[in-house]
Design a protein that fits this description.
The protein is an alpha+beta fold. It is built from two helices and three strands; from the N terminus they run βαβαβ. The chain has a single domain (about 1-75), classed as Mth169, Chain: A (2-Layer Sandwich), CATH 3.30.1280. Pathway: Purine metabolism; IMP biosynthesis via de novo pathway; 5-amino-1-(5-phospho-D-ribosyl)imidazole from N(2)-formyl-N(1)-(5-phospho-D-ribosyl)glycinamide: step 1/2.
Length: about 80
């Protein structure tokens, strides 16, 4: 079993890496690129039944910055 935490910049936060990626895509011929956001995905292997409350706490307090980032938690069984 594993938990997947996806961390993305909040929509209101400037994402220079996303903007640079969008520009690079246009230079590579993908002209119809809209807004690009760049985040991160963290996979956590779990030996047993997950403590979802604790995983949310870890995602919120350790893996993301709640001021500028949102996170999503997925448990894969």
């Amino acid at each position: 079993m594993k938990a997947i935490v996806t961390v993305m910049p909040k929509p209101s936060v400037l994402d220079p890496q996303g903007a640079a990626t969008a520009e690079a895509m246009k230079h590579l011929g993908l002209e119809s690129v809209g807004r690009v956001r760049v985040g991160k995905s963290i996979e956590i292997e779990l030996p047993g039944e997950p403590n979802e409350e604790k995983l949310h706490e870890i995602a919120r307090d350790l893996l993301s910055n709640p001021v500028i980032e949102d996170y999503a938690l997925e448990i894969v069984r």
